Amino acid sequence: MAAARLRCAAAIAVATATPAVAAPPLRRHPAFLPVPGAARLRLTSCRIPPPRGAAAAAMSSSARAEHEAGAWYAVPGLSLRDHRFAVPLDHSSPDSGATITVFAREVVAAGKEDASLPYLLYLQGGPGFESPRPTEAGGWLKKACEDHRVVLLDQRGTGLSTPLTPSSLSQITSPTKQVEYLKHFRADNIIKDAEFIRLRLVPDAKPWTVLGQSYGGFCAVTYLSFAPEGLKSVLLTGGLPPLGEPCTAQTVYRACFKQVQQQNEKYYKRYPQDIQVIHEIVRYLSETEGGGVALPSGGRLTPKMLQCLGLSGLGSGGGFERLHYLLERVWDPVLVPGAKRRISYYFLKEFEMWLGFDQNPLYALLHESIYCEASSEPYSSTNTTSVLFYLALASSNSS
């Protein structure tokens, strides 16, 4: 998902792209470096007697506070169970007292609730998007559940894992404190959450298999770096972070810009009638007071905002067709001669449904930082896309 969204960030060819806020680069934390075998101590002769009475009750209560497991329930072909874990906000300072809730859903094939199965952790794409919500046995999940116990993790800040939304973040009134808080929601802490869960959920804390989709692949590589002892195997589907060489989001944007151009050209070749439609929309928005029109949710549709249609429309299967059919419904009909033409409520409402930034702001806040290796660069999307757009425009005008 992360790579696809970057590739199509300049969806509709108007002047500039929507700016994004870069977050600090990920840092490796020594807490998860494996201890060399020679340095491990054997304490076979120093057995500590199990706690009894009040001490045992206190430990049991603490374990319950750290992990709460729900009852099994069913969807067609699958059995599911919800788990909630109280994890440190900052794993490097676990004694600070600040905790968040991390949610994971355990999934098995119907009838295999008590079967002895190896565990598979699924890491969702993003950043900032929750794990899938199964409605039935199907796709990759059905296949995985044939011989695995699948754990669908809502990465911290998403879904039911202390979700960060515009309203919840507004509780932190200082922008500086918001940034400090957001630093704890990157891949390094996501992986520490995963290890926290593995040690409490998997019998005998055995290593598990990790399946990383898109940004989940970035997290899986971080897992390999920080805690390889927790991994039996790692499967990556389309997500690999920069490795070895220094990299910034601007490097990625430059590499992807040509593909963005090609997708625009392919779209307009298939639907040449939409060239005029886009010109009319951009002109209408630009000439409207305030440079845009109000969206049903209270946001504002501007020419820059219009480009976001390409995140899905130019970068997913069937996206060209869905985008074209959406553009068919841009304008309200003129019922009274001389009435001013307006963008339809249908289009504005559908436009909002294409976007996930309102519900999942972590993507807009953090997606540039995941491409930074040994460096960072703020507002790369604006800087890079503006320059490359005008270079491409100059080239097309001179040919």
From TrEMBL:
GO terms for biological process: proteolysis. This is AB hydrolase-1 domain-containing protein. It comes from the Eukaryota. Belongs to the peptidase S33 family. Keywords: Hydrolase, Signal. Residues 1-22 form the signal peptide. It holds the Pfam family Abhydrolase_1. Residues 120-279 form the AB hydrolase-1 domain. GO terms for molecular function: peptidase activity. InterPro entries: AB_hydrolase_1, AB_hydrolase_fold, Peptidase_S33, Serine_prot/Carboxylest_S33.
